[in-house]
Each structure stands twice: as C-alpha cells, then as structure tokens.
Amino acid sequence: MANVRLPYVRLREQPDGTIRPRSSHGPRQRALGFKDQDLKHPNGAWLTFQECREFSDTRVREVAAAIESGQSVALPVRKGSTIEHLLEDWIASPEVQGLSAKSVSSYRKAMRAVIFRPESRTEAADRRKKEKAAAVLGVAPPEREREPMAAATPSSVGAPELRNFYNYLKDARGHHMALAAIAALSAAFTWGRESTSWRLGRNPRLDMEFDQPDGRVVLVTLEEFHALVAAADASGRPSIGDAIYLGLFTGQRQTDRLALVDVGLTGEGRRKFKQSKTGAIVEIKETPQLAARLTDAGRRAKELKLRLQLRELPQTIVVDETTGRPYNEHTYRHSFADIRTLAAFGALHRSSIEDAKVRAAQCAADMRKWWPEVERKFPLTGNPEQVNSAIDARGEALSQWLMARAKLDSNGAPDAWRLTPCPGLLFVNVRGEIDAKHDQDLRDTCVMLLDRAGNDILSICDVTGHSYQSAQTIMKHYRARNAARADVAIDKLVAFIGKEGMTG
User: Fold this and answer.
1) Phi then psi for 292, rounded to 5 degrees?
2) Is residue 168 domain-resident?
3) Domain harbouring 415, CATH code
4) Whether residue 422 is found in the same domain as residue 453
C-alpha cells in the first residue's frame, strides 16, 4: 500500500496496518479553495481504497475545472458551523478576553488540543520550516492536521462523544491536558448558549464526571540535581542550571522562577518572590549555595550583554543565552528536556558536547523502540498484586537496559565519561510507563528535603508557598517511602517497649 499513489490523496498507514486516507493539496490547489481533510463518511467510517480512488479521480477533474475557470471551489462547510469555529468565537469574546493573560493563554493551549492532532517535536519543527518557506514564497502555508472533533457540529456532540474524546486525549496528550480540553469545550458550550450567533442548547458536559489524575510526587535526588546542572553547564545553557538551583533552594513554581527579578537582598538576608499563580509574596533566606550560583549568573549576564551587544539585559535572573531575553515556558521546557536526556545518558570524553547530544537523543529513541517489547513481556493484567509486580519488572528491565547501554558505549571503562550517565532521571511510573524527572519536581523535592531536615509543616509552607493540604500530601507520599525514617521509628518503638519492661 505504501507504493500506491493517488492524486490529491495521502494514504496514511497506522502502526496496526490500517489506512487512514486524507486529501492532500499543494499551494496552488489551496489557493483555489481546496483544503486538506480526513476522508470519512458522515458516520465516521474511513473511505475504502476504491472510494479513495473515486475521490481522487473526481478531485482531478475539479482542480482542472477550477484552474480553467479561474474560480475558487466552494468549501462544503460554512463558517460558523463547527466546534473549531465555536472555539474561535468563544476565545475572541469579551468574556474570555477580559480574563487575565495567564487564563487566556491556558485556554488557548486547551483549545489547540481540541482542534489539532498531537505532533512530535520533529514533526512540529518540520512544519515550522515549511511555514517559513511558504511565507518567503508567498504561498499558502501547510495546514496542521486537525482532530475530527474540530470539524464536528456542536449539535452532534453529546455526552458520549465528549467521553470518547476525553478517553482518546488521555492517551494522546495526557490526563491533565485531557481535562483542560474538556473544560475549554464546556466553557465554549456554555458561552454559546447566550451567544446570538450560536444559540446552543444544553451543555453536554453537565452532570458528567471525569476522573482526576493522581498527584505527582517525585523526588529529585542530589545526585540527579548535580547531573542536571552539570549537563546544563556543559551544554552552554548554565541559565537552565540557575533555574534548577532556584527550584531546589526556594521551592517556587517554574513560572515564578523564570520571571524572578533580582532586586537584591533584604536587610535580613532574604530574597523576595511574588508567586504568579496566587499573587502571594514570599521572602526566603538565601542559602550560601544559591548565593554563589546567582553571583555567577550575574557575571555571565554581563558577559552575555557584551557578546550580544545588547543595550540592556532583562531584569530576570534566568536569561536565555541564545536570545538575551527571558525564557518562555515552551522554550524552557524543551531545553530542559534536552539537558535531562544528556544527563541521563551522559557524555563521553572522546565526543564533543554536540555529538554527545546527538548520541543521547539516539539512545532515547532506541529506548522508546525497545519499550513495546517490555510491555508485551510484562502486561499489566490480573489482580492489583500482579499489576504491581509487572510494573516492578518493567522498572528492573529499564534499569538493566540503561546500564547495559552505558557499558556498551563506554566499553565498560568508568573513566571514559565526561558526564557520567545518571539513569535515575528515567524511571517507570505507577502506570507502568517510562517517565522522567521534571523541572516541576524540584518544587516537591524542596518540600521533601525541608521535611527531612526536621522542619514542621508551617515552616515548610512559609518557604515554598504551598497550601497546608498540598504540603501534607507531598510529605505523606514521601514519608511512606522513606526507609530510613521507618528504621528510626522502629528503633524508637523498641526503646519505648524496653522501658515498659518488654525485652527480646
């Protein structure tokens, strides 16, 4: 099937061998009004190969006729009839635009998750290149592939369709984004009821319940912390290391750290923070380790100003070395992910850092290709005990694969590494999936370390700005898995019972 070519039809083969056809046009055809779209029947069934052939023959004649007449081809869907149009009208409404910039930005992200299919980083980069090329040539840019939900009419979406879409998004984009997308759809449906342009009926989201994700509580060990900072510094991205330091020693959110302005210390040696989410003001005593890192950050900022010949540097502590500007969350997230991959797989002395990045990316790709074999070998079936046993087996398999890969690439020589691999940055989570330590985990790590140092919950919340409930959840999770703390508790129990006259 891969060798079959039909004009204006792209036959997309799925991993399971099924074919999902889609119409595909060039800039000239798009200028005439033709648009790419999934080739489906009204009931959602994909066109067969013979039907695709008939569509292709018809489209060839339509394009020829359009070129000859010089007239554009009318599209079958009118403006203002689909979920995509509803979301566009809703996001542009005074009701949404009157919200805070952060709320509007969050809604836009959720809206894009409803309209567009997920892209890999490689696919997104390739699309952006094509968009730039189209802008230079003055032709229509390539269209991003859309979700079927985007083309649905609001009247065709009920509770079953929302549930099906939610379940799909959980697998495709993750639990949190699935909930955000449903929330955006619900808000748009509610707005559409009062809109004179839409006059929608009852919101199908009402009376539906969606499961909430378990709170993520993951500890970044000090070994992993140092590995991340070393990888950031070696990569020419010490600003990422600065943000990592701020995360561990202040416990603040990523957004607040990236927007943190250095206005000096208070008279009591504290640094002041304002949290973007709650607006709370937090003053935190600066540790010697953080003070040394920020001093170095200031020196690097001055060098950056000279190198980029900037008039002024941004006031933020964390400055992107490539632009001389503050990071946006998208750039920071991808930069952190690249550094984490380098830290996890390490860098050999015989390779440059750029080559080490390429090797690390290839190792990660090889790991993802190998992982389905582990999933087949250890399926998550049976009773809870059997599922937990399979998850443990997956974790052990991942650990062995990482160690074997490092040994193979270094020929078993420990001194071959410029950056020693830190495989603990990759792990198998409670769902049995490969996961990785995130920048946001530094915030919970700060809570855990403050707790381990003997601080009470009130003191911890005064530092990090967590609610008492959130801090208790984090500490409960951590303490339940702290063997050393459990050992101390048993020792105290033995001592207490001994005083009561019970001996072994």
Assistant:
1) -65, -40
2) yes
3) 1.10.443.10
4) no
